[in-house]
Model the fold of this input.
Amino acid sequence: MPRPKKSQSNIIPVKKQKGADFTPQLLKGFKDILPSSQLYWSFIYTKFVKLARAFGFSKIDLPILEETQLFTRSVGKQTDIVSKEMFSFQDSSGLNVALRPEATASIVRAYIEHGMMSWPQPVKLFYFGPMFRRERPQAGRQRQFYQLGVEALGTDKPVLDAQIIALIYNLLVQLGLKNISVQINSLGCADCRKIYLEELLNYYKSKRRYLCDDCKKRLLKNPLRLLDCKQPTCAPVIATAPQILDFLDETCKNHLMSVLEYLDGLEVRYIVNTRIVRGLDYYTRTVFEIWPEETEAGAQSALAAGGRYDELVKLLGGAPTPAFGFAAGVERIIAALRDAKIEPKKEKAPEIFLAQIGNQAKIRALKLFEKLRSAGLDVAESFTKDNLTAQLEIANRLKVRYVLIIGQKEVLDGTALIRDMESGVQEVVDQQKIVAEIKKKLGKAV
Ligand code: HAM
Done:
């Protein structure tokens, strides 16, 4: 006989606890950087800091949250970064704030706010930290990503442009990325750009019917970005568009020629690409991007980019101060290293592993750990394990040559065993002489 169906009224609804069905997850476009990737991060960070210091830059750390206006005024209201991608909100006092989408604007704010114009010029600063853009997540494009970068404020000399381009070029080459291409252009000063934009607009208006919808908007809002369109239908229009280089005045032309001459001298390989216009409004004169060579132009994966921003300090309320800088995407550099099968060297194995058996031995070993460490030895341990075999397995995994073992007997007679993990030979040493004995074995000065 079929069972009678339970009537709805018999079902006792389970009262959901608030939040009980909530499984915490990463936000879209955000990533955890796990211990297994940290080798890449420290590899890049260490090399970058060394190079930046060698080029005379000092470190600056800036806040992640700034007033939204800082970015609307500098990066530009009409840019994608500001108009579509900023994480901006009102704080509880009603102030409009934003997670920084980039660091150049904050550097300029800090330059003005801390009176850096009275420091010896140029003021040369480097940074490393997270930036935030609410972009559509895809390969090489995250919503939180890290940039390393430098900014030099207080000179318009073209040699600075070339030196900074050489800095990031050399960093990428030193990391092992040989196939990279520096693409360089000049956007001229405000005067030459005004004439150029008129010409560009006239040209584009005559081609309006061939343009994609985005370009029709750019025509009204941000005409320089027309040259940056990735739609195949717009490519023929871009190909025959007037080129900014033909509109540079003598001073801007000479500036660019000098930058190229210095780059030749520095043996930095580059190509002049008049389509490099950048997605931020503050640029004047030199702009550049560095791409992995095998990537087709059009793919969205520049490793680094930057340029001159001679008007920005004044625009944000400071005295007129020319400046130049770049930023590179750390995740993109890591992806390029992985693509090229470049692995940073593993950290060195610890010099000694300290193993213990029994509670009294653990107490003695805890003290010994401090003694060995303060004597300059690189010691590993696993005090949460009690079993010797488990500890030796860890020592093996860490590739440690010598293991120091203390058990009940050693506690009582004030000795310890040193085990050579390669030969399996063990010898007894006096706990008082342990540091000297180990250093002798490691070939270190006692
Ligand atoms: P940017 O071209 O917007 O320039 O960004 C610089 C670099 O940051 C890019 O080349 C790329 O490697 C990385 N990047 C940008 N957006 C993302 C993203 N969504 N995901 C992963 N990586 C990304 C600037 O930010 C300027 N502040 C550069 C500068 C400094 N100009 C003068 N000084």
About this structure: The longest strand covers residues 123-132. The chain has a mean pLDDT of 93. Residues 158-175 form the longest helix (18 residues). The radius of gyration is 30 Å.
